[in-house]
Write a structure and sequence with these properties.
Layout: H1 49-76, E1 80-86, H2 92-103, E2 109-115, H3 120-128, E3 131-136, H4 145-155, E4 162-166, E5 183-189, H5 196-199, H6 201-206, E6 209-213, H7 225-235, E7 240-243, H8 252-261
Parallel strand pairs: 1-4, 1-5, 2-3, 2-4, 5-6, 6-7
Length: about 260
């Protein structure tokens, strides 16, 4: 198990651990069970490498199976789920709040909030005017497909809905676990550093879209949007990159156009 991120602590690993609050899976989905897991970045010790890799493969294979059921369940109902990932403080929740207010009249929108603890972000989303379910992962550093199942049961989204999933703030593990979503979006803020795609290549390689947020702060920080886009394309040549300010609204129409294209 990965001993550096806390996922090997009791209740924090994998799915419905003691620190994770989820419901039963939706009708038509295969019900999962709590399971410990590791991440596909083994910390090798003498004589353990083969066993560790085998365990990781088994865990990821189970997650992929559950995610595949989620994907079919969503597709059958014409629901688009977008997995939104970033480091803490990149502005995911602010981006969601503005998106809900601007798009809520066009189609049903619901949010799945992932955090280790608290209901704070879910309360913000509820005030913005949309259905939301909070998934607290305890020591876990990402959402997984079983957590997505439970959240979908609680939300019971209308056909044709847009489901925005705010994953746990972390630029490593969330990219490794498929939820059954239509698309993966990475949000990076201009306060983080131009070279972030090079430091976290797997996350940016997995992304369908990179959103550079907080561009209203560009006059005050040392950040090169063109350079960041270049680095992102160096690990993912086909990725699309948008620049926005969720605070001022600049560039948000490009984001809404991208969302519409997912249907």
């Amino acid at each position: 198990m990965c001993g550096t991120c806390g996922c090997d602590e009791a209740g924090g690993a994998g799915g419905a651990g003691a620190g994770t609050r989820i419901a039963k899976p939706p009708s038509g989905l295969t019900e999962g069970h709590p399971h410990p897991h590791t991440h596909p970045h083994p910390h090798a010790r003498p004589g353990e490498a083969t066993e560790t890799i085998t365990l990781e493969q088994r865990v990821l294979a189970k997650n992929e199976t559950v995610a595949a059921h989620n994907r079919v369940w969503l597709a059958d109902r014409g629901i688009v789920a977008v997995n939104m990932m970033s480091s803490p403080g990149a502005g995911k929740t602010t981006l969601l709040e503005r998106t809900i207010r601007d798009l809520g009249g066009r189609r049903p929108v619901a949010v799945i909030e992932g955090d280790q603890e608290t209901m704070l972000d879910a309360e913000r989303i509820k005030r913005a005017g949309c259905a939301v379910v909070q998934v607290n992962t305890g020591a876990g550093c990402h959402l997984d497909a079983e957590m997505m199942q439970g959240a979908l049961t609680t939300l019971s989204p209308e056909p044709g809905s847009l489901i925005l999933v705010e994953n746990v703030g972390n630029l490593v593990c969330p990219a490794l676990f498929d939820l059954g979503e239509r698309s993966k979006v990475v949000i990076i803020s201009v306060t983080e550093g131009t070279d972030k795609p090079l430091k976290y290549p797997y996350m940016f390689a997995a992304a369908d879209l990179v959103v550079i947020n907080k561009i209203d702060l560009l006059p005050y920080v040392d950040f090169d949007p063109d350079g960041c886009e270049k680095y992102a394309r160096s690990v993912n040549p086909d990725v699309r990159v948008l620049t926005v300010s969720a605070t001022t609204g600049e560039g948000m129409n490009d984001w809404y156009d991208w969302v519409a294209d997912q249907y």
